[in-house]
Amino acid sequence: MFSTISLFILAGLAEIGGGYLVWLWLREAKPVGYGIIGGLILVLYGIIPTFQKFPSFGRVYAAYGGVFVILSVLWGWGIDRKTPDVYDWIGALICMIGVSVILWAPRQ
User: Fold this and answer.
1) For residue 20, which of 41, 3, 47, 44 has the smallest C-alpha distance?
2) Per-residue pLDDT for 1 more than 80?
3) Which helix (H) or strand (E) holds 81?
4) What is residue 73's predicted lDDT score, i.e. its pLDDT?
5) CB neighbours (10 Å) of residue 91?
6) How far apart are CA 104 and CA 65, in angstroms?
7) pLDDT tens digits, residue range 10-58?
8) What is the mean predicted confidence (pLDDT) over 91-98?
9) What b/e string do you get for 54-76 counting C-beta neighbours within 10 Å, with b at 16 or more?
10) H or E element that contains 79
11) Tens digit of each residue's pLDDT (9 = 90 or more) over 55-73
12) Please, are residues 70 and 96 in contact by the beta-carbon 8 Å criterion?
């Protein structure tokens, strides 16, 4: 379980961080190096989930989607300084419940 969560967090940070650097380059006129580094980090994001032990691509990415939402709320709070409101936290909690069901529901 620790490995699963760690890989999801690492993938999320790569996706959000890489996307953020591309955003800074294109939307906030930062140097092209931001975009290049962001693009390379996004390539790493595509590789990281392949280390998950789950056999199903769809299930891994469905669960990762919920983790991505939670990390995005935290990124906005910490990096963009946009304090999440009660609805952001409710949505993040719903996503966490969804991730838990997808990954750890008993299956036959």
Assistant:
1) 41
2) no
3) none
4) 96
5) 15
6) 15
7) 999 999 999 999 999 999 999 999 999 999 999 999 999 899 888 788 8
8) 94
9) eeeeeebeebbebbbbbbbbebe
10) none
11) 788 888 888 899 999 999 9
12) yes
